[in-house]
């Protein structure tokens, strides 16, 4: 198995606490952006919660939540199933952290670790394309929170 790492940063116009609540700690009670039809708990036990996110375009992603640090706005999860998992990738491990920025928004720092099947190698373009999909989801969440300033406060 190969392991490939990728780090991204994204400047957002929503404060760290709201982004963290919307994407992690209060996701079960947060109104969803139009691109998501539902988020369902598939399993909840001592080793972590497994959630399935269903998107309006028909695909879904199953991920295991492993760490939720509400004081430092850090979470860790592993994507187990979905369009990013296929012939080449066995799993993707994410660590996301939201840090305050001086303008009232935040900086999202996302560290990704791609575990490939067998001896498969990923090139920079494949890793960037996968990372870009995550950034789109963050931007959709940001837009949703900006349009609804009363949620995740």
Kindly describe this structure.
By secondary structure, the chain is an alpha+beta fold. It contains 2 helices and 7 strands. It has a 7-stranded antiparallel beta sheet. It is globular. The mean pLDDT is 87. InterPro entries: Bet_v_I/MLP (IPR000916), Bet_v_I_allergen (IPR024949), Plant_def-hormone_signal (IPR050279), START-like_dom_sf (IPR023393). It comes from Castilleja foliolosa. This is Bet v I/Major latex protein domain-containing protein.
Note the main attributes of this structure.
153 residues; alpha+beta; 7-stranded antiparallel β-sheet; 2 helices; 7 strands; 22% helix; globular
What can be said about this structure in brief?
With 153 residues, the chain is an alpha+beta fold. It has two helices and seven strands, in the order βαββββββα.
Number of continuous helical runs: 2
Q: List the secondary-structure elements in sequence, H or E.
A: EHEEEEEEH
Instruction: Outline the low-pLDDT stretches.
Output: none
Beta-strand segment tally:
7
Write the layout of secondary structure elements.
Blueprint: E1 3-12, H1 16-25, E2 36-45, E3 48-55, E4 60-69, E5 74-81, E6 89-100, E7 106-116, H2 124-147
Antiparallel strand pairs: 1-7, 2-3, 3-4, 4-5, 5-6, 6-7
Helix pairs in contact: 1-2
């Amino acid at each position: 198995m190969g392991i490939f790492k990728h780090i991204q940063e994204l400047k957002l116009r929503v404060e760290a606490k709201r982004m963290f609540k919307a994407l992690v700690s209060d996701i079960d009670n947060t109104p969803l952006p139009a691109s998501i039809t539902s988020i369902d708990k598939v399993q909840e036990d001592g080793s972590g919660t497994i959630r399935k996110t269903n998107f309006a375009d028909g695909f879904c992603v199953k991920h295991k939540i492993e760490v939720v640090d509400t004081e430092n706005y850090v979470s860790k999860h592993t994507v187990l199933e979905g369009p990013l998992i296929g012939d080449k990738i066995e799993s993707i491990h994410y660590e996301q952290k939201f840090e305050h920025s001086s303008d009232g928004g935040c900086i999202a720092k996302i560290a990704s670790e791609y575990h490939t099947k067998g001896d498969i190698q990923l090139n920079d373009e494949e890793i960037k394309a996968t990372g870009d999909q995550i950034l789109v989801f963050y931007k959709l969440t940001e837009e949703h929170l900006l349009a609804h300033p009363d949620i995740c406060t």
